[in-house]
Amino acid sequence: YDRLIAICWPLRYSTIPTNLRMLLIIAGIWSLVILLEIFPVIFAARLPYCSSREVQSCCCEHGPVYKLARTDISYNRQLATAKTLTALLGPLTFIIFTYVIVVVAVTRIASISQRWKAFHTCLTHLLLVLLYYMPVILAYILGNLRLVQNVDLFTAILTVSVTLPPMLNPIIY
To answer: Are residues 67 and 124 in the same domain?
Structure first.
């Protein structure tokens, strides 16, 4: 959003992202995240569980918890898939859409040096986006296609794919 405003409307940059707009965006994102997390917890809490309560994960997430239930979990599996796709593909789609708009706007700039400066501004952010999303999406695909059978290996892959990219942020920037 910041780069979209900075490149497409540079003269209005100080007036478009106001504190109120930023607060509304942050409140909207937090509300969506809370809703995405509350429904799976409510549905998992209603399931009947057998004697084993050992979660096969380093985090007590929805997926490993509902798999312990001794009833039909197809609805929970669909809910988990929808939640994951929304959480992963929603922001990624928004980022790609804004970068398409930015690329169109940058190609209209006459000066090659200004084009390079605009692309360079976006390149580090795009690199971080790809560095975060690609391992997470790969781990999700590996898990859903059951290509990784070992639970501990899958947990390690998922943990590394979620923690390593944010640790690289200071190095890239």
So the answer is: no
